[in-house]
Hints:
The structure holds 3 protein chains of 3 kinds. By secondary structure, chain A is of the alpha/beta class. Helix content of chain A is 38%, strand content 25%. Chain A has 2 domains: 1-79 and 158-242, Rossmann fold (3-Layer(aba) Sandwich), CATH 3.40.50.300; 88-156. Chain A has helices at residues 42-49, 72-78, 95-106, 111-125, 140-153, 170-185, 197-203, 221-225, 228-234; strands at residues 4-13, 16-26, 31-35, 57-62, 65-66, 80-83, 158-162, 189-193, 206-211, 214-219. In chain A, strands 6-7-8-3-9-10 form a 6-stranded mixed beta sheet, with helices on both faces. Chain A has a 4-stranded antiparallel beta sheet with strand order 2-1-4-5, covered by helices on one side. In chain A, helix 3 packs across helix 4, helix 3 (95-106) runs parallel beside helix 5 and helix 4 (111-125) packs across helix 5. The longest helix of chain A is centred in the C-terminal third of the chain and has 16 residues, at 170-185. Chain B is mostly helical. Chain B has a domain at 17-217. Chain B has helices spanning 2-32, 39-57, 65-82, 92-114, 139-161, 163-173, 175-180, 185-207, 218-232, 237-257, 260-277, and strands spanning 129-132, 135-138. Chain B is globular, with a radius of gyration of 18 Å. By secondary structure, chain C is mainly alpha-helical. Chain C has a domain at 27-236. Chain C has 13 helices and 2 strands, in the order αααααβαααβααααα. Chain C has a two-stranded antiparallel ribbon. The longest helix of chain C is centred in the N-terminal third of the chain and has 27 residues, at 27-53. Chain C starts with a helix and ends with a helix. Chains in contact: A-C, B-C. The B-C interface holds B 35, 83, 86-87, 91-94, 96-98, 100-109, 111-112, 219, 223, 226-227, 230, 258-259, 261-262, 264-265, 268-269, 271-272, 275-276, 279, 288-289 and C 54, 56, 103-104, 106-111, 113-115, 117-119, 121-122, 125-126, 128-129, 132-133, 237, 241, 244-245, 248, 278-279, 281-282, 284-289, 292-293, 296.
Amino acid sequence: MAILEGRNLTKYYGALAAINSVDFSVEKEEILGMIGPNGAGKSTLFNVIMGVYKPDKGEVVFKGRTISGLKPHRICRMGIAKTSQIVQPFTQMSVLENVLVGGLHGKNLSFTHATLEAEEILEFVGLGGLKGMASGSITVPDRRRLELARAIATGAEIILLDENMAGLNPTEIEEVLKLLREIRNQGKTLIVVEHIMRVVMGISDRIIVLNYGEKIAEGTPSEVANNEKVIEAYLGGKVCFV
Amino acid sequence: MLLFLQSLLNGILLGGIYASYSAGFSLIFGVMGVINIFHGEMVMLGAFLTYWIFTLFHIDPFLTIPFSIVSLFIFGYLVQRFVINRVVEAPPMISYILTFGIHLIISYTALWVWTADFRTVTTSYSGFNANIGGIIVPYARLATFGLALFVVVGLYILLYKSEVGRAIQATAQDKEVARLMGVNIYRIYAVTFGIGAAITGIAGSLISTYFIIFPQMGLPYTIIAFCVVVLGGMGYIPGALWGGLILGVVQSLTATYLNAGISGAFTFILLFIMLIVRPTGIVGKGIVE
Amino acid sequence: MLKRFSTTLVIAIAIGLLFVPFAGVSGYLIRLLAMIFFWIGKTGCWNIISGYTGYIDFGAVGYYGIGSYVTAILMSKGHVPFLLSILISGVVSGLIALPIGLPTLRLRGAYFGIATLAFAEAMKQIILEFDKTVGINFFEGPHGITLPIGPKNEFFYYIGFVVMVAVIGITYWIRRSKFGYALRAIHEAEHAAELSGVDTLRAKIKAYMISAFFLGLIGGVEAYWLTYITPHMVFDVLITIQMVVMSLLGGIGTVFGPVVGASFLTIIYELLHRDFPYTYAIIVGFIVVVVVLLMPKGIVGTLQTKLVTQKTRLTQ
């Protein structure tokens, strides 16, 4: 059974449908890639899954339970976390404290437990050395990792990555990909939105493609890459073939 | 029935005045995101300027308006240029607190210098009314209403038909792009504040002709301006007219049918409800962060 | 080590303060200290909601006034004993904070400030006009309410001391708790906090209600101390402004900021208000402007940042 499903999801902005009758499903420990030109509705879909928006039509089902309409913090505590396109660390707190918040509130741990876990997670993502630093003063790639660490700390089973790798150089991207694979090996499920084709094709088990709010294709990376509709959607659109 | 119509008319006339001094508040918020807590003080300053010129030099209040325009424009420009400009990039809370501080400075300095005495500007024609079918229409109020409408319309024209106005709009919509196009946004902010202050000053001058004025009168006006602008839509100038009229009528009717004091409470209750139910204003064109 | 030193110092000062009334000092000093205690208490309350969450409450005096009136009515008309009255005041204020907070804490930035300001002013108007409008004799409107005569200043000194310790203590406890982290996360990046599992609305409401409870309680105590209250006195927006400024000056969001800010400003007030009543307000205004432009973290906040930077420099 799929761990996360979206059925007929539709969300309007005024008269325009940001997403329209989108169906998708993700299996446990799968890495699902989501691509599409700018404005295709990827972020909207993520926000609907996370409960930031309530869908006008359709529902989101997590482990058999309908979660659409619940508040984001409830959904987070149930096991889904999301990183944001524009990174938002708690700037006045240290790196460790940022991750701590995730453990305290997303996973409802005690201080001692949450601190121990936070330290482990920071080691895991490679930020162990920075744990005492003010999170406002670390580099952008490190902030991205911090977002990821915080998401992991909430005890999430599914992590939604919203362009977490934008602006990273190829070496940094490789490191993050390695990290993501390891996260999956630990039993987590990932949905990855990226504009960098190489990244999405390289890491995803399956890919869904959105355009103008609708799902236009779905399948393995090679299937999607050869799909006419997908190619048509991207001609003239922004694509990065790094 | 007559009572109702009289009350309604009073409310409309009052509403026009409210609109005139709230437009500046809306402008400043719309362009700079600054909620100006000393807005009422600018009304007070305009009123007192008119009072002193009238009392000392016996110039008709309506003729003091040019003085108000110039003085308050300069005042607004300088305050924005040297003080508020330093915090426009910060979260709106900071400018809120800052303008609160300035409110204290201005209102209490005025209180110190001019004492708490109530003052009025009474001209020879203050008491003259028109009487239309039993409904009394004071000439002075009517003239003030007319001028107030003129001010709001004038501001609208300024914003949409002049070069400066266009620059202001560009800055309001996207200051980064405006910057790239060569607009000095800090100067535009200063000019905008100056304009906002100037029109508020005009309103203050007009108000002195039939409301009691005193140094502490500012804060209630600021709150009324909030209410008007929230009703009409923050940053949406024509909305100030809607908001003003609605508030004016509500106040007038509750004052007539309940009592004068409780109509004040209604302002706040109305404001509170609007913020929660429809922060973008009646017409829905307001800016909400 | 520095921490242990300062904790001992704080406890020493606290114990010292307990003995001051026995040291034969002037009644004036006792009254002044009591005033400072109450201002620290009020400012501390404001700090719990506004300092921690960043939602600047401009209607705090509303709860103070409600508390004043509840105690005044209970004691003068209901002959309810003092301690019970102030507790009820706190509870009433805290409960009123719920329906007020629920809608307003969803508003962003400055709108929350306006809404709460409107709330406080509305409360003042309502208490002023209620009796006349409804035709009864309950709140007494502008005539005000007179409470039974209270004990000497020493009594209020100790009550003030207890309240101050309670509020600062709670502020301290919150900072180090899960709840505190939630509030600070809300302040820094509310959306990210929500996504990380923080029930933001609940946390904000909780902070708001705690703040309201203590403000109501303090309002009740001060009503008894003043012996006579009117709506203009206890719903005065200047009270809120002073809470804001004291917090700002001392350091918004710090535990001891309110202590520093309240002490400083109350002393200035005492020095000025008899001979130069308006100057106090003008100075407060200038302090606001100067602090906002030059020292936004306040005295304690700026000191803390300096210490942290020093520490980081040393460990590198």
